[in-house]
Amino acid sequence: MVYILMICMGVPLLLLIPMLEKQSRLLLGFVLGGMVLAVCAYEINSVVCALFSLSGPELSITAAPIVEEILKALPVLFFALLVSDDRKLILQLAMASGIGFAILENAFLLITYVDQVDIAWAVVRGISTSLSHGICTMIVGNGIVYVRKQKKLFYTGTFALLTASMTLHAIFNLLIQSSYDYIALALPIVLYLLYWVTKLRS
Asked: DSSP per residue over 36-58, as a string?
């Protein structure tokens, strides 16, 4: 099913890309890339789940944050290292990668649990979960601009950035399954608003 969703959603976007201007094409390309990475994460998580006999909740707070954050960060890291270190552009691309990932993940979960979802679920997934994916990738994107210029810090710094994004992802997943789910819902929104407040003041 995940491949059918990828084809139905990805091919129209792929056909649109050549008609766009350079930066719009780049952003949409990263959205599409995030969707492809969501398929990769699905396959890897499925293998990990089977190998270690993990339940869904266990997977979501252990292996999934590691797998997903590494995958989402890869295109951002490659772009920052090989193409451009423009912080503004990298943050946009990082968010695009995370949002693209969330789009396919949300669609797959909707199809899988269609009898259990409602408007509240859609709002949570559409806002908080999508922002969570985007913000976690932005952590790596924001830091790599600095780290790439510091040879002594490059490897440890990149590892630290990935660890920070994985930790935030795992905390979000842990809270959303607990009685403190309202904190999980608010956390990405607060972080997103703080980002915009900081951006507007600078």
From this structure: HHHHHHHHHHHHHHHHHT--HHH
Determine if the pTM surpasses 0.85: yes
Q: What is the pLDDT of residues 138-151, one digit of tens each?
A: 999 999 988 988 88
Contact 75, 89 (CB under 8 A): no
Segments making up each domain of the chain, as ranges? 2-201
- 138 within 8 A of 98, measured Cβ to Cβ: yes
The CA distance from 127 to 113, in Å, is 19
Question: What burial class does residue 190 get, using C-beta atoms within 10 Å of its C-beta: 0-12 exposed, 13-18 middle, 19+ buried?
Answer: exposed
d(CA 35, CA 10): 8
- What does the pLDDT look like over 4-33, one tens digit per residue? 989 999 999 999 999 999 899 999 999 999
Tell me the C-alpha distance between 173 and 69, whole Å: 13
